[in-house]
Amino acid sequence: MHVTATFTDIYVAVSQFYGRQVQLLDSSRFEEYAQTFTADGEFQHTPGIPPARTHAGIVEELRRFNTRFDNDPVQRRHIFSMLNLSAWKDGAIDATFYALVLTTRPGVKQPVVGPSCLVRDVLVIEDGEVKNRSRQVEHDHMFSLV
Amino acid sequence: MHVTATFTDIYVAVSQFYGRQVQLLDSSRFEEYAQTFTADGEFQHTPGIPPARTHAGIVEELRRFNTRFDNDPVQRRHIFSMLNLSAWKDGAIDATFYALVLTTRPGVKQPVVGPSCLVRDVLVIEDGEVKNRSRQVEHDHMFSLV
Amino acid sequence: MHVTATFTDIYVAVSQFYGRQVQLLDSSRFEEYAQTFTADGEFQHTPGIPPARTHAGIVEELRRFNTRFDNDPVQRRHIFSMLNLSAWKDGAIDATFYALVLTTRPGVKQPVVGPSCLVRDVLVIEDGEVKNRSRQVEHDHMFSLV
């Protein structure tokens, strides 16, 4: 993305970035998913657990997380929606959006729906490509009643 | 949006508008949600009930509607999809899209899914910003069998 | 779309194309849906069944498929998401995305959710308009355990 990139260009580049990134994740291509983060990127997808850091750390966290499916084959899908690019400062973009997780098991047409999440990303443009500097996921069923 | 705005610019501006608008709604920031409508905006989200009008009227209707959750804390999410900008006349845009409502309760990972809706918006550009002139929501489970 | 169309323009044109196309499908406007394919277009939406070909063939396949709802009135919705335009060669675009089917019955607020699908489209630009040259749908619940 050049210096002259417009809001329109950025919004579309981010949409395309998420389309590709999510399909990598749901195909268990964790190394390539990790590469969508900056080298010092932070990825926090489970509330209460400290964020994974660096590409190697993100891959390790995804492998650990997915061991739960070792004897329970599933096709997961993450549906991101309602993308809101809410700030642009020092070359970083705050992106806030919804994520809905679907989990399908072989032979069962209806996926398990949930959790529903709110995701807060910080994105940067590195050498013309969108990258995640950080991702923080909040789960809707863990909201505070205070 | 200038006079020279392209279809691409408009489509993205509308997508960003909905991302922000929905997050305001689902955060119960009803005053800010109402401000996404024009001063004389119309908001009709329950079939058979006349539309709310003006910012104050929209806030009042949302407060009334949400009293059902007073003793039943929930996190609601509205997922808009399949945006179709189908007409552009006298500066107004017809936007038609799907809306799926998700309702999550504390400690329950699976949201209640539904209703599924068809939304018909009329949008205008005021001082360079997208605004709702009107919104009309049809619920899929109330469709006519005629 | 002119020769000078940017990636941004294409991504938005494809998004708008899908918004309109899906609303035609879900309104049972099968002739108009078929017209969103090229004259020799291929449409394969049920694994194991050979693709329908040509506009007439696509209409016939959709009529055949939908006879299952003859005595079971429903409002179907297809939610496409996570659009990834992954290649551009000889004027054709590979588009990969998720599709989630929702089926609502009269008086029942919660739709039946599923199947969840992966869709592989080949798109072309004909006379400035996006068209499907082919569509291939994979169902998540039929994934191979090999």
From TrEMBL, chains A, B, C:
<feature type="domain" description="SnoaL-like">
    <location>
        <begin position="11"/>
        <end position="134"/>
    </location>
</feature>
<dbReference type="InterPro" id="IPR037401">
    <property type="entry name" value="SnoaL-like"/>
</dbReference>
<protein>
    <submittedName>
        <fullName>Nuclear transport factor 2 family protein</fullName>
    </submittedName>
</protein>
<dbReference type="InterPro" id="IPR032710">
    <property type="entry name" value="NTF2-like_dom_sf"/>
</dbReference>
<dbReference type="Pfam" id="PF13577">
    <property type="entry name" value="SnoaL_4"/>
</dbReference>
